[in-house]
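User: Structure please.
Assistant: Input sequence and predicted structure:
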Amino acid sequence: MSFGEFTAPIWFVLFAVVAALVVGYGWSQRRRRRHTLRFANLAMLERVAPRRPGWPRHIPAALLLVALMMFTVALAGPTAEAKVPRNRATVMLVIDVSLSMQASDVTPSRLTAAQRAASTFADDLTPGVNLGLVSFAGSPTVLVSPTTERAPVKGAIANLTLAEATATGEAVYAALQAIDTFGQIVGDTQGPPPARVVLLTDGKQTIPPDQNDERGAFTAARAAAEAKVPISTISFGTEYGAVDIQGERIPVKVDDESMREIARLSGGEFYNAATAGELDEVYSTLSEQIGYEIKRKDASKPWYALGTITVMAAVGVALGFGQRLP
């Protein structure tokens, strides 16, 4: 551990005291030996004096010094990282339901695989996270406002239906509005809970054509950054997807570049998934990031316990070798 991971590192000054005790112990042992050699008849002393245990007699003192060091570390307030479930957070899951999502390059189709993975994501989120759902094609629909109840979200996911066009920017704005409204309702002295948008889509925005338009995806991403709501984007599908529309085979390859830019502009992360398994992995990663936070917790108890055990060991060794306490 570094000194920055202790709550009261000033206690480490006691190591100087421990060092002084080590020096004092060594000095006392040398002084005692000199005193014995100065005033004793060595020949007689060798015959009548009991044999001393030698170096093992120093073990109790060494153990006590080690215990003092352990107690000093404990007093300094060591901390350790701990993964703690969040009890206040808001997530808006935004899912593309444009016609391109019926492509079968992901078995059995992009939409079906996305529904299964999103439902699992809802189940895996920690109970304290409020989850909402927005679907979008040519326009967005807030299907479920943020809630800790998972059944409404999973029911809405199961009933997603396809439609024409892709209005990614409008979907982001709808998610931000839902987050803002919810935050005003549940906000407390700490302010609204931290929020995030998880955007899953397989292609580029078509309405409006320009993503820097006033209602475009890039503009919406900048608005998300201003609201401090990062967007985790998932580009789902392959370069080889295609759908049949009115008898015509139309390619619908993924648009990683746009999704990466949306994530960057909002301060979020970009993911791509070309299979259902990869999508499950992405959602699992997001579930860990969103559902838990890393906090530093007190870790002094093990040091106190080790110090106490070491003191007991010192007493045991002292009684065993010298029949007296150290």
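DSSP finds ten helices and ten strands in the chain.
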